[in-house]
Design a protein that fits this description.
The chain is of the alpha+beta class. It is built from four helices and twelve strands.
């Protein structure tokens, strides 16, 4: 009897060991499964869309609102002519050059090639806002103007040309459809459904194909902080105030877009 009792006790210990180990194995298996799950974050959606990821069935830009005749950055589009120290105006031939292209405001370094799903979506949205009154530059290739004209630099001033393109600002969000479900769904958004923080700027073109916008001749009085800053920049690109916003030492003269030659 005593021998039988010890044998039964030994089997019982084995069972307890097996039962104790089972939950440990289950937890070890569950960890990698949890790591694979989870919804796509907005930054992942942006990255996958930008890279035209093979994980996607589709990625598209969804427009929510738009604004026509939005003026772009103020750009200097000619070299600077120095007429400092002179008591008379100077007639000078300027070489003026500018280009425009569709641009996207989303994240630093963000691009979407024209042959990607998202690039095609941008083109289709641009076509939607294209009208008989306003022609939009819808793809990511550039167009612009390059010409020479003679204008007057005032006495004791520096002179150069400024340009601000006219564009249609379409804002909305990205909608990505994945091939495989993540966390029980396939459709995700960046930054959020219904959001308006993704901006696509479509330059507006005149009927002859010239970019529409504002071109002006700017004269800046020598010896002023504005003139010194420009001269010290050695013709490098820098942010400039808009038309009529330069202050008392700055004179702006509007140039009609009709005087810009067709490309």
């Amino acid at each position: 009897m005593t021998r039988t009792s010890r044998k039964g006790s030994h089997r019982s210990k084995k069972k307890r060991i097996v039962i104790a180990m089972a939950p440990v194995v289950a937890i070890a298996v569950a960890v990698p499964l949890m790591n694979q799950a989870g919804a796509a974050t907005p930054s992942e959606v942006t990255k996958d869309c930008a890279e035209n990821s093979a994980r996607l069935d589709n990625c598209e830009f969804v427009d929510v609102q738009f604004k026509r005749d939005n003026l772009g950055p103020n750009k200097r589009v000619s070299t600077i002519t120095d007429n400092c120290g002179s008591t008379s105006a100077l007639s000078k031939s300027f070489s003026v050059s500018a280009s425009v292209t569709r641009s996207i405001t989303l994240e630093d370094g963000f691009t979407a090639s024209a042959d990607s799903k998202l690039g095609n979506s941008f083109f289709e949205i641009g076509a939607k806002f294209n009208t008989t009154e306003i022609d939009l530059k819808r793809d990511d290739t550039g167009t612009g103007f390059d010409f020479s004209r003679t204008d007057t630099v005032k006495a004791n001033h520096i002179g150069f040309f400024m340009w601000s393109e006219k564009r249609t600002d379409v804002s909305g969000f990205l909608r990505a459809t994945y091939k495989d479900e993540q966390d029980g769904q396939k459709v995700f958004f960046s930054p959020s459904e219904g959001g308006t923080s993704v901006h696509v700027f479509y330059p507006q073109l005149l009927k002859n194909g010239t970019p529409d916008g504002r071109l002006w001749l700017r004269n800046v009085e020598c010896g002023t902080p504005q003139a010194n800053g420009l001269q010290n920049a050695e013709n490098s690109s820098r942010a400039e105030p808009g038309f009529g916003e330069g202050g008392e030492n700055v004179t702006d003269v509007d140039i009609p877009v009709s005087e810009i030659p067709a490309p």
